[in-house]
Fold this protein.
Amino acid sequence: MPIVRDKKIEVLFSAEDIARRNGELAEEIVLSDLKNPIVISILKGSFVFAADLIRALHHAGLSPEVEFISITSYGGGTQAGEPKVLRDVESDVQGRDVVIIDDILESGGTLKFTRDLMLARGAKRVSLIALLDKSERRKHEIDADFVGFECPDKFVVGYGMDVGHAFRELPFVGVVTGEA
Ligand code: IMP
Ligand code: MG
């Protein structure tokens, strides 16, 4: 079991599992026949996944524009509140095929809010991608069009995802299980 910053981390999805799945996802996404898409990565958690996925899309023959948006649901505390835009996209999405990428789909609040925002701005079509789906935790009626892996109901870190700003750099997705 890997030890990082004096914590034991159980690997749930290895770097190899993720790389293989990204290739498959890219093939599926290309088959959905997107026209001149803008890919929007939700910061910060999805930046590693998005960076790998756009290169997998390149290998699958798709050349997206890339944008970032920063959404928070935590108004300082730990209780999830109404999502808010902290940093917006720069491009006009009017009439465009938009692909939103997030790390985890949990209650659905973040992806629902971001999708509705892009539709309100006139996006022609919005597709949703989540690396991990914690479907047991869903509160909003929303599903992703493309999901990397179904995720157990555990707090995960790595591959862009953090706990208290730590562990984003891990090349795999894992769970902190205790002190080393
Ligand atoms: P939702 O809005 O409830 O669907 O939550 C999705 C957001 O919560 C994701 O964008 C993540 O940033 C965050 N999140 C949910 N579960 C985890 C986790 O296990 N580890 C790290 N971040 C998480
Ligand atoms: Mg997030």
In short: The chain has a mean pLDDT of 95. The longest helix spans residues 15-31. The CA atoms of residues 157 and 164 lie 10 Å apart. The pocket of magnesium ion (ligand 2) is lined by residues 42, 45, 103, 110 (CB under 6 Å).
